[in-house]
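User: Can you predict the 3D structure for this chain?
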Amino acid sequence: MSGNKSFFSLLFNYCIDQHSRIISLTLEHLYISLVALLITLVICIPLGIYITRNEKLKPYVIGMANIFQTIPSLALLGFLIFILGIGNKNAIAVLVMFAMLPVIQNTYIGIKNVTPSLVQAAKGMGMTDRQILFKVELPLALPVIIGGIRVASVWIIGTASLAAAIGGGGLGRLIFSGLSSLRNEVIFAGAFPATLLALLSDQGFKLLQAYLTPERRAKRVLKKANRVEGTEKTESKKILEKMGEI
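Assistant: Here is the predicted structure, written as structure tokens:
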């Protein structure tokens, strides 16, 4: 019991004394994660769309992303030192490679799972392939794509702590500092904000995923239509009342 009190006392004192450093490293961790996630989306969503149109390339693209998943993160960080040197650039490159699979896979699955009859109906209306993609397939596939981004964001935030191992920034600095000095309070001061960021990211994308489901979107459209219809009825009633007065 006294050991627990001692740990929490040390943690409290450390957080009070080093609060500015903890906040600074948390923001740096968030910056590294956001940059890596943004680059992942820019590369992987178009790649996922492309392999829906070129099925022969699917095994190679998915296989490449799988290979990046199987390589241990630290080994990949060490290997890229010879190419990108040490620091955040190396860490961001590894995070992008590590997060590719769920985004590519979910983009592919989301588009492929769109009901074929809807695509055929869009073609029958004279839509081009680009219009079908942006007005039919992507809107319907969006919840599945967001699911992949959700997984990728959690992986990126968690793995970003390893950036400190090759001279990068972020909360990993506190974790590695605590490990080297055998100070549990320092390890916890780095691990807790990283865990909190991952949980917040997961819940945020979960809410967005639920918000973008076709059922929820249909309910919003119906509610808006009912509101417009109610407004029109009210205005018509007022006009009729005025005509009656005349």
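The chain has two domains: 2-212, 214-246. The CA atoms of residues 122 and 128 lie 8 Å apart.
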